[in-house]
């Protein structure tokens, strides 16, 4: 099987795997807030509290994110599909189009998320065309809202009939 067939099948399989949606934020060296939509997010460890996410090496903010000492991961709530699209778009004033504030740790925190984890960078790992960032959670906020999901290139929520 040629590589293009493998890539196509890989995208098909991964696209059929529902995930949550996050927005990861930080500030650059000048204090300008930066953020991007990420669905490659997972928990790693309870002791210490560690999470991971990955960033494409072609993203314009790549160097800032892999060199930052801290970042915040926002688990988006079901009603934040607009933020998901906003932070996935290019050449848009992302923070000018949403409600946010700086935390005590000087991280941009977006209002309305289901949960927010502020992290210090624990480790980065090169992985193909992405870099994996592992963060140690230093602060957690939880609103315990229904999460935004991503499945087959669409965003939505868990249907009511899903619950038993």
Automatic annotation (TrEMBL):
Chain segments annotated as coiled-coil in the UniProt record: none
Domain of life: Bacteria
Gene3D superfamilies xref list: Electron Transport, Fmn-binding Protein, Chain A (2.30.110.10)
Pfam annotation, one family: Flavin_Reduct
SUPFAM superfamilies referenced in this protein's UniProt entry, alphabetically: FMN-binding split barrel (SSF50475)
Annotated ranges, domain Flavin reductase like: 14-157
GO-annotated molecular function: FMN binding; riboflavin reductase (NADPH) activity
Alphabetical UniProt keywords: Oxidoreductase
Record has DNA-binding as a keyword: no
Listed transmembrane segments: none
Presence of the UniProt keyword Cell membrane in the record: no
PANTHER family according to UniProt: FLAVIN REDUCTASE (PTHR30466), FLAVIN-DEPENDENT MONOOXYGENASE, REDUCTASE SUBUNIT HSAB (PTHR30466:SF11)
Family (UniProt): Belongs to the non-flavoprotein flavin reductase family.
Protein name: Oxygenase
Organism the protein comes from: Paenibacillus glacialis
Origin organism lineage: Bacteria, Bacillati, Bacillota, Bacilli, Bacillales
